[in-house]
Amino acid sequence: MKKDYYQILGISRNATAEEIKRAYREKAKQYHPDMNPQNKKEAEEKFKEVSEAYEVLMDPKKRQLYDRYGHEGVSQTFKGGGFTWDDFTHFDDLQDILGNLFGGGSIFDDFFGFGRTRTRAQTRAKSGGDIHVILRVSLEEIIASAKKRFRINRYERCPVCNGRGGSELITCPQCRGRGQVQTQTRSFFGTFTSISTCPQCQGRGQIIKVPCKKCGGTGRVRNARTIEIKIPRGVANGQYIVLKGEGHYGPGGNGNILIEFEEKPHEYFERQGYNLYLRLLVPYSQLIKGGAVEIPGLNGKKNKIKIPRGSTAPQIIKVKGKGMPRPDGGAGDLFVELDLKPLEHSDKNLQRIIEELKKYEGTPVPRKRQG
């Protein structure tokens, strides 16, 4: 006598779809044959049993038939009158559960057929491969969208054999000109037929009898090239652009060049997003009097900012629109932190001035907390 589906999954009869899936996830992991190498045959039966329960209870119509008529009510929904892997319709869920468990390997690399015969064609010739470049750029270059050059070594189509690898092509003996090889694997899920690219001819169906002397039969040669790009407006550290088709040559097409940008540390500025931060040492007299002062700029010119009269240190002045350019045409802001510039020397006259200044400064007082 068959066991109750709800008991098999360990759930109540009013369980939600999420509760059913959660229970199946645990049972599938528990009974998967790869997790039970000492008792594989029994595990296969248990695994099939919990999958049958999941198939019925996750389908609203099948679940309604089962709740009303029991096993007899759902047997008619199975093709052969009884559950087989051909009746299972939740392989995506199973792949999600066990693919994560086995890191995307195990049965999902070898037995993706799941009880039926499927093919997986991979006849496309191999592409040339990508080139990853890390390009160090300064804030000045970024703000000016400057042009930048760099050197690469890449594989290019052989000019002698035009990428064919040689002459006098003959039919590949391994795939007999089809460019594909076929293998079959059996598992407790069923038969899996895999059709993949022929490893000997790489999907071409032919092999070279006389290899090209220039490229040694590979169809490509290595050359040094200089690439010039324009730095994208406001590009940030870690961002990248792709030059499509500028990578290594291959029979399946050229790869790409991936250019990752790395910002050089700046002498004065620190960047956060599109905002810039600068620490400015200001003499005490200028903090008291206020006025305009010059600060470094990223465009080769000095910038002027206004220090409010009676400023303190530390204090931050926000200069709107003087940060890094944004791709949309705007710009971030500049934040200037005012700090007290230490006295550069000490003599008798300075000491006298400091003593005189004490009359107006008063004594130290604790600063109240904000908020």
* SS content category: alpha+beta
Give the overall silhouette.
Answer: flat
Strand content: 25-35%
Q: Largest sheet, order of strands side by side?
A: 10-11-15-14
Distance between the termini: 73 Å
Number of helices: 10
Question: How many strand elements?
Answer: 15
Sketch the topology as an H/E string, one letter per element: HHHHHHHEHEEEEEEEEEEHEEEEH
The CATH class of the largest domain, by name, is: Mainly Beta
Kindly report the name of the CATH homologous superfamily of the largest domain: Heat shock protein DnaJ, cysteine-rich domain
Sheet bearing the most strands, described? 4 strands, mixed
**CATH architecture group name of the largest domain:** Ribbon
Task: Give a concise summary.
This protein has 371 residues and is α+β, with helices and mostly antiparallel strands. It has a four-stranded mixed sheet with strand order 10-11-15-14. The protein has a three-stranded mixed sheet with strand order 1-9-8. A two-stranded antiparallel sheet has the order 2-7.
